[in-house]
Structures are given as C-alpha cells and as structure tokens.
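Reviewers of the previous submission asked for a worked example of the structure-prediction workflow described in the proposal, so we include one complete record here. The input consisted solely of the amino acid sequence. No template or homolog information was supplied to the procedure at any stage.
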Amino acid sequence: MAGAIASRMSFSSLKRKQPKTFTVRIATMDAEMEFSCEVKWKGKDLFDLVCRTLGLRETWFFGLQYTIKDTVAWLKMDKKVLDHDVPTEEPKTFHFLAKFYPENAEEELVQEITQHLFFLQVKKQILDEKIFCPPEASVLLASYAVQAKYGDYDPNVHKRGFLAQEELLPKRVINLYQMTPEMWEERITAWYAEHRGRARDEAEMEYLKIAQDLEMYGVNYFAIRNKKGTELLLGVDALGLHIYDPDNRLTPKISFPWNEIRNISYSDKEFTIKPLDKKIDVFKFNSSKLRVNKLILQLCIGNHDLFMRRRKADSLEVQQMKAQAREEKARKQMERQCLAREKQMREEAERTRDELERRLMQLKEEATMANEALMRSEETADLLAEKAQITEEEAKLLAQKAAEAEQEMQRIKATAIRTEEEKRLMEQKVLEAEMLALKMAEESERRAKEADQLKQDLQEARESERRAKQKLLEITSKSSYTQSMNSSTTALPTDLPSFNVISDSLSFDFKDTDMKRLSMEIEKEKVEYMEKSKHLQEQLNELKTEIEALKLKERETALDILHNENSSRGNSKHNTIKKVS
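From that input alone, the workflow returned the following structure tokens.
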C-alpha cells in the first residue's frame, strides 16, 4: 500500500515538472519554421533559437515582427513571449525580418546568410513599391536578381521567354511604358549577359549596393503632427531622423543626423528632439498612438546605437567574422579561378576536338571525291581501250577489203576483153575500182590515225588513274594520323582535375605571397569597379533615353515626378540630407 502511494506521488511530481509549451511559427523571407517553446521563455530565448537554426551571427540587424491592431510591433528581448499582445491561437506567427539597415552594405554585412536575407527583403520592398525605384534602375536590379537565381547567362539554356513567370519589375514601372513583356525581358537579358562570372553572393551584394542609394531604402515612416498641428511624416533610418511632407517621401524638409542629436524623449504622445547645437530650436511632434511612440523610440535607440558602433573599433566577434569572411572569400575566389581555368582548358580541348573532327570530315570528303575520280578514270580508260580495239579491227577489215579490191582489179586487167564495149566497160570498172581502192586507202589511213589518237588518250587516262591512286594513298595516310590525334585529344577533358579534387587540395592557410597577390587583385578590382560605375551610369542614361519615347506621361505617379525633378537638379539621397541637415 505504501509502495503504491509512493509510486503515485512520484508520478504526479514528474507530471508537474513537465514544462508547459506553446507552438510558434517563424516566417523568414524564403522559409517557414515551427518551434515548441516553453511558457517561461523570453523574447531573447526564441530569437536566439531562430538565429542558431539559421546559422546567423550578425543578430543586431534583425528582430521578430508581429502585427497587433493594424500596427507593426517587434518582440522585446527582455519580455516573456506570451506577455506580448500576441493572438491567443496557436501557432503564434512571427516574421524574422531586418529591423535595422546598414549604412554601407558591402562593409557591414559580413555573413553570406545576412546578405541573402537583406537581398530578399529589399527586393520584396522594391517590388511591393515600399521603396521607390526609377525604371532604369529597376531593370538593372532585375538583371542582378536573375544572375543570383540562374547563374551565368547561356543562350542555349536561357531562351526567349525564360523570365515570363518571374516577378522582376514593380507594376508601376510596367504600367508606365508601352512595352510588352518580351521587350522588358530583352532589356533585362542584355544586362544579365554582362554579369557573367558573378557568384550568387556577389550578384546579391551588387543589388544591395545599388538599392542602398535609393531615397526610401531603410526608412521607416510614421505619421506625425508638429506643434502647429501640421501633418508631417517622420522618417527613421541608419543616418538619422528626417521630416517629410506627406506627399513627398523622397526629399526630407529637415534632417537630424544621429551625431547632431543630444537627446530624444517622449511623454505620452509628444516627442522632443534636442539638437547638440543649443542655438537650434528643439523640435517637438505628436503621434496618434502610444504603441507607435514606443516603436519610434525603439527604432531611434537601435539605429543610434548602431550609428555609434560603426564609428568605433570592431568588437572581437566582428573582427573574427570579418577575418573568416575574408578567408572564405579568398578560398572561393581561388576555387572559382581554378574552375575557370579548368573550364577554359575543357573548352579549348573541345574546340581542338571539333576542329580535328571537321578536318577529318574534310579529308573523308576529299577521299570520297578522289575515289569517284579514280572510278571515272578507270571507266574512261576501259571505254577508250574498247574503242581503240574496235577501230583497229575496222582498220584491218578495210585493209582486207582494199587488198581484195586490188586482187579483183588485177584479175580484171588480166582478162582479155576483145570487144571495145567490153573494154570500155572494163576501163570504166577499172576506173571505179581504182577510185574505190583510193577511197579505201584514205579511209584506212584515217582509221589508223584515229587508232593512234585513241592509244594516246588511253595512255593519258592511265596516267590520270596513277595520279588519283597516289593522291588517295596520301589522303588515307593523313586520315589515319588525324584519327590518332583526335583520339588523344578527345581524351584530354577526362584527364583534367575535377572541381572536387581541386577543393580537396585547398588549404585554409594562405601564404604571404598569396595574400599580397590577393591584395593586388583587390586594388585592381577597385579600379575596375570605378570604371564599371561610370560605364553603368552611362548605360542607365542610355536605357532611360531609349525607353523615354514609350513612356505614358499621364501614368506618372507623384513620386516619379519628384524623382525626375531631383535628378534634373542633380540631387541624390546623401547630398539632399547634407543640404537639409
């Protein structure tokens, strides 16, 4: 009895010890994950689990976003997950997104997974028109997106219409021009073909480098009112705080860079921005909801911390990540160079093989023609020999007939004809016989000459036959040599080192000479990049001019008009912020 009670007590205690859990669904830009979380978990526990699952170390850019009452909110790290205003039903859904944006993507985004997540998010924002992008830049960005997805352009694989199902351009851009999908694809493909040799991470980084110069990139907008009650927009980004007219999200009226702000505070619904320069008036504004005020303050604190962090020496963790990234980049670059050399060698071997095969076919054709010529020569020689034989027989027959005529003439002469009439007739017959004998002699002579000519033609035909046989022997010897060369050459690609072998032979330790050579290559790449940037701007202007004639002016949006005005004045994102600061 006591044992049964003890067992029931231990079972109940085990049951009580089992933690209660709830299900969470995490949606990234390209995947969904589900986790079972403990009730006591805080936001940081869930966030760290997601980052570990993704292999993400640059966690300071990201957060877990959810929506409550049509307002965007972010999961707080130090607060229990279930203490947030999240729906009660399960699974509870959060979106893993970039909360803060870098000033310079190429310098700050170290991990490839970080770059990829930013690329997907920025691309979606451009296609959803949350970031304004001019038409010519949209085409260029689309070409880098295609390079990232499909790799190098191959006209045999990427045939016309291969982008028909892809969403690559904002609908605003497509509706703005009288252009068919085929015309857009042609222009995207023309630039896509120029990106040959870029890996996926390189194409995505080029996309981000262009996108980060767009005016609305990385800006969170909030509706506010100033002290006079005027409706305005507040923009928070990596550079500072910006005040916009509600109808113009491209050009700020006033900007407060983070390094010129002394303090940001809010009380209830009123925000106060105090500049460092005490001569500048304090800027105050109101927002409609307390929850929005908390979000604005979160973004201000996070962006300001990152702004100051960028201007200090990198932490040990960041230094290690950058060193690993440099080694990984150098390793991949060496692999790509080895792969490119192997590919070049294979292509050269294939070209040599094709050339030898072409030469072999040519020699075979020449041999066939020589055989045919030889056969024709043999037939001609046979015909000439047969004709010469017939002519000789005819000549013999004529000679025999001439001899018979001569005998007949002698016999007639020997016969005595007494009467004059007989004599006259005889003389006439003799005369005719003489004439016939003369003709027979001439015909015999002509036939003899013809037989000599035929003998000469036969001799020439046999000489031609001899030359044809000699040429055929030469071609046959060349053909056998070519076949041996062909067999040795076509075997070349199989002897080449494969990609895996090259990879296995690589080491993560680089010699000083390798690093010096890599440094020189990087410097060379910088110079090339400057030249490409100039060329790129010329291409953008060329495309803009080319499609300008197809633009439907009446479909231009307010942002299109504002962007064109800024471009005509030579205003860019950064110099505009400097002017209004």
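The two ends are 83 Å apart (CA to CA). We consider this example representative of the routine output the project will generate in years two and three.
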